[in-house]
Amino acid sequence: MHYDIAVIGGGPGGYVAALHAARLGKTVALIEAKDLGGTCLNRGCIPSKTWLKHAEIIESIEKAHEWGIETGTLAFSLAKMKQRKDSVIMRLRQGIAGLLRQEKIALFQGYGQVLPDGHTVEIVADGKAERITAERMIVATGSTPVIPPIEGLDSVHYETSDTIFDLAEIPASLTIIGGGVIGVELACIFAALKTEVTVIEMANQIIPSEDAEAAGVLRKQLQMKGIRFATGSKVDHVAQTGKMITVKGTDANGHAFALETASLLVCVGRKPNTSAVSQLPLAKNGPFIAVNDRMETSVPSVYAIGDVIGGYQLAHVASAEAIVAAANASGLAKTIGCRVVPRCIYTLPEVASVGISEQEAVKQGLSVKTARFDLIGNGKAISADEFAGFVKIVYEERFGEILGVTMVGPHVTEMISSASAYMFLEGTVEELAEMIHPHPTVSESLGELAQHILTRLKRKQ
Ligand code: FAD
């Protein structure tokens, strides 16, 4: 069979690329080795957010007692949590399958390998191989967890984000190696389930790529839920000791530490899946496939998108790149403008950011100002007893252009879209201050902060 475009990988990069190309009138084949929806739907965004909802409900029930609402004894059923997660995944997966059918996209279940001509894909399923050809290829094969070279790791049972959602029982204790986004979200889930959680992070702050103050507030709030953190710390050795795992390492002061844990989760980053294109002479950017702003690789007929090209490893970035790749592979001309990328961490409290952080601005030597509004001054946050957090704006002083926003608190992963919109439209602090925000909402804190900044700017003039 010959197609205009073959897409390899059915995650939020691949299926969006396939749908977009089909809507542009192209004949499209989509090849997926496992489950439609990729990491995001099956082992990432959706299972984690489904279980974070469980954690949120547990926290609300616990708080209810303080607020004079009496409930029964709390009990958790991991089996029911898994059932709910699986039904959410199934429902969304069926939705994707339906869209593919509607657009008459040919779905091939199997492992795809692009042959050296750059136009043929060999698809292997159940030991049988078949070949299809295409004018253009879009590689959207995603990424898998990095397993660090820690002594003894090979000989203990450990979890990754690929296996943690299939645990047979709630562990009494869980040590998480890696305090990045995935690590802290999973820490929140298991702490709510009354697992004793310890997070060990090599950098000096958790969520290392985010604003330091936001990381500080998050750490404090998670510590209040009983989660223990060791930052600036490195795990050197792990070993099975009966039913427990012993974790040894070096802390921030260079002192040796050792702890015992019932379960171990490794979350230290993700590496690209490039074996599907190992027979092509593709230029690389470190381990990732190198692309230009049209998502073109160094091989003319081949495009690449999503986690396999590195950068922000986020589902919405993969989907944005998918639209660009599909347009170019269909003969249109489109480039990606990824300056405004919202980033969300769905912990309790949530963290969300867009654009540049204060520390990043300092690192780049930019002449910017920052201002912060603490949610302790926000009526909606206080009424919900969720005022541990803030909104922060990084702006350029001359025109007041907003260059970055970071928020910690309730609903901020929803609120960040409006901050992204101001930035996308190159909005200024003045425009933000003039907008009417509804009251009482947490989002009005953004408007209030903009008014403070405006007063500050006017005083200077
Ligand atoms: P993937 O989703 O990884 O899809 C790639 C697909 O390609 C897979 O289905 C794979 O089976 C298939 N494949 C690979 N090789 C082949 C081959 N040779 N032949 C056929 N098929 C192949 N991002 C967010 O934006 N928000 C979140 O809240 C969020 N939460 C996350 C939570 C966790 C626990 C994890 C692990 C990730 C999370 N992410 C989140 C990241 C997000 O999942 C990824 O950025 C996103 O899935 C990348 O999409 P992709 O299409 O590039 O790759």
TrEMBL record:
Disulfide linkages recorded for this protein, renumbered to the chain, are 40-45
Q: What is its EC number?
A: 1.8.1.4
Cofactor(s) needed, names only, are:
FAD
Signal peptide positions (record): none
Q: Per its UniProt record, what PROSITE patterns does this chain match?
A: PYRIDINE_REDOX_1
* Residues annotated to bind NAD(+): 178-185, 201, 269
Q: Which residues form the Pyridine nucleotide-disulphide oxidoreductase dimerisation domain?
A: 341-449
Q: Which GO molecular function annotation, any one, does this entry have?
A: flavin adenine dinucleotide binding
A GO BP annotation = 2-oxoglutarate metabolic process
User: Which ranges does the record mark as transmembrane?
Assistant: none
Q: How is the cofactor bound?
A: Binds 1 FAD per subunit.
Concerning Pfam families, the annotation shows: Pyr_redox_2, Pyr_redox_dim
* Annotated active site: 439
Which UniProt keywords are listed? Disulfide bond, FAD, Flavoprotein, NAD, Nucleotide-binding, Oxidoreductase, Redox-active center
Catalytic activity reads:
N(6)-[(R)-dihydrolipoyl]-L-lysyl-[protein] + NAD(+) = N(6)-[(R)-lipoyl]-L-lysyl-[protein] + NADH + H(+)
Indicate the segments forming the FAD/NAD(P)-binding domain, all copies.
3-322
**Residues reported in the UniProt entry to bind FAD:** 49, 112, 141-143, 307
Other comments on record: The active site is a redox-active disulfide bond.
Per the record, the similarity remark reads:
Belongs to the class-I pyridine nucleotide-disulfide oxidoreductase family.
PANTHER family tied to this protein: DIHYDROLIPOYL DEHYDROGENASE, DISULFIDE OXIDOREDUCTASE
Record-given protein name: Dihydrolipoyl dehydrogenase
